[in-house]
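user: Please review this fold.
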Amino acid sequence: MNKSIVAGVLALALAGCASQQPDQPFTLTVAHINDTHSHFDATDARLELDNRALFTRLGGHPRLLSHANALREQATAANQPLLFLHGGDAWQGTGYFKLNQGAMNADVLSRMQLDAMALGNHEFDLNNERLAAFIESVEFPVLAANLDTSRDPHLAELDNLKPYVLYAFDGNRKRRVETMKDAGRRPVVAVMGVVLEDMPDIAPNVGELIFEREVQGAQRTVRHLREMGVKNIIAITHLGLERDQRLAREVNGIDLIVGGHSHSLLGDFRNLGWDQNEPYAQVFTNQDGRGKTCVVQAGQYAQAMGRVDLTLTPDGQLLRCEGGNTLLSDNAFFRDIRRAEQHRLAGQDAERVAAYIEAQPNIAIVAEDPALRAHIDENYKPALDRAYGRVIGHVPAELRHVRMPVAGQGSEVAPLVAASQLYWANRPEVRAVTGRQADFALVGAGGVRNSLEPGELKEGHVTLELLPFSNAMSIVSLTGRQVAGLLLETINASLPEGAHTGKFPYAAGLRYQFDETGKDRGFLSRIEVRRDGQWQRLDPQASYQVVMTSYNASGNDGWNTLYESQQVLTDRLDLAFVNGRLAAFPVARLSKTDGGRVQVHYINQPLDCKAQGVRCNTDAQAFVDYVRNQRPVLTALPESGITLNRL
């Protein structure tokens, strides 16, 4: 039995008998994951083990399932209640999603035997018809209590999309119930979902959905559950750690928040060469001054699983909340990230590393579930391998992507993406279509999905993983004042702890320095544009031709300055391939629906990325062309162009 499983056996065995007594404290174990982003295979990782840098692979869904099954076996042996929950954002992230459009997620996640999942923002990346198909096909409920679906033709009548679900427990045995009467004297746990209130600003396709404020929607649902007689309440959320903590402080009556969205691997991982993050299972006092709420989250990309043990009073008050995140590791370790056989540890070296891991509380060597591994390999992996296509270059050393600079270290990938877009927009064949010379490019950090690992770089690594959203490139005129306003807006919004940092701006052909002067605010002390090989100060009155994705050009993800500047009139051009030929689609203006979704109004023929013969992923094509023609040996640029001075 895995050592991370053994640790809890005695405590759970002692607690299991008490859980059946309605007049005794109720104990519950919750296993949880979030932001798995279609990482069905394990991901490469660098760890510092036994004082040396080593490389292995972490997670993947077959390894998650194996660990979850071990937790289930432990709970069964102890007759202990257990729930397995997902904090949202199962979609996007790898070529598996690009190829299977959510169907593989439904298949694999159902095999995981989840008890519930929250709706994440990336579940809205396709359209509500495909989302409805996903929700109806999974074998667990999908939850969103602050979501009004009544106006949406695809989601309005879904039986499997619920505000909450009730589980009645008889020791380890659990059963879905509709009412407290159905549960009899058995303890009941309500699991409710909370989704982002500003989803229309973050997700590209929300249809006619209405999103209620997070705190108000959560409190309303808790009040309803309490009136039903439910004492024990868990919220699975996709809000990010900071908003989860706000929810814990401002909403009365939630015992546990299982979160997602900020990809927070809670706990201290310095023993593995990683960071010390906020503590796992922090407890916050509710607004009423009496109740307490515990908050947990489990990182990203199916690399880790959290397990938290709760003890609740007969009236549903939190007495105990303890646990931690466990990274799930392969058993093969290498001295070099290229992972050639000559780099693999063997003999005493391998035994020493295994012994070191055995002594750590936050990592475990876990074998993949063989049945799920075989299912993925037989049904999905061959198409993925074919789809990755030709080699366009090589990455000699890892290029890291972080959304926002930390201690002066920013993304190495986002500046390359920006450079590729500026290069591509100024290629002669593109300028022949646009009639414009681009001055600089801006890239939102959230549009860049991953780091680049050493080795061959194939087309599919770009189109299916790095830039998977099939965004059209846009070129639009902005004044220097508007550019400065956009930078200030997005940087300031990214500063607060736990903020969604996907809006943070990287650039090519432009550089800036931002100085923080107070908590979560500051000013731009320098903005310069490169012209004729020289850096020149940005002129507030001058007009510049700026390249970016159509997603950001429409003001999505908090780039509100772009929306405001195009409400009346714009000269923006969106660029896409039509029957293999590059075409420009002039934009007239932008507007918003009643639900807050941005609408793009074109002058002539609208750009329909779903139309036959239309290919919109010119953002990915720009990077492919840049690597193939300019940087076949892809290394980091000498400087990112960004100086972010934090207090």
